[in-house]
């Protein structure tokens, strides 16, 4: 039997990372690997016309572009409604596996399972997606995590809370970063205190430290996910989406200021102060909708590369790519235009979900 494309990509990744992705902290029975560790594959989903209407064609172009870019570095499995499988395959090409699965929308980071690891196996946390607190129809997306796990025959862990994958960011070493606005609210977890939610997060993801920033409640569909604000590039290093100096004073700049103060004095699970790296947002991007996500930090780390957005502000795009390249030495940086996704309030990270490699 010949060597498959997936096996070839996996072998190359192991060689590139020297096997370091197999190590885990010895004191946790369950842990959530950080995104930089080797992946088995990436999950994505095909947007539907019922949700996106006249914007569907442009959004599908963005999703296909991301899928093809990721597939250059690791396998991609894209979920699509059965009647749209052929169109998705044509758009994404032979390098992307398209699987018929009922979906409402494309935001796989939120609807798919968040994969955790044990000593020698993985499991998937089903965060009970409810359409970001009932803001969007989700009859199909609410079952996506279960469908993926059943198809892969992976253990399903049903969370005792409701959340989305984009609301959570880990350093892979026991620290979790979250926005309070996306978790402590009655549309997801009615009557639950922050302490109760924190206990659930610690148990689900094997973390010992949860760093809370305030966020923004009610101004966007996600109630301000952390992956549009701050990410761990490595343990101890947080990269923050930084508003331009000329940005108007509003709820978003106030949220950034509050989060920056928290992170400047926060310590991680190892008891170490965090280093904060600024990733300035673009300025000259033309006319965009009020909800446009002009945020470089919503990038996605894959095996051997970082797939990140570019917005047409050449100076800012170059600066952002340079910063990301420094944060992830040895990885190729692949900037992509994703303006249609941006108009929908999301980006590359929001549309992807990694399955970590075991062994």
Automatic annotation (TrEMBL):
Record keywords, A-Z: Hydrolase
InterPro entries given in the database record: Peptidyl-Arg-deiminase_porph (IPR007466)
Name of this protein: Agmatine deiminase family protein
Gene3D superfamilies (alphabetical): L-arginine/glycine Amidinotransferase, Chain A (3.75.10.10)
Pfam family, one: PAD_porph
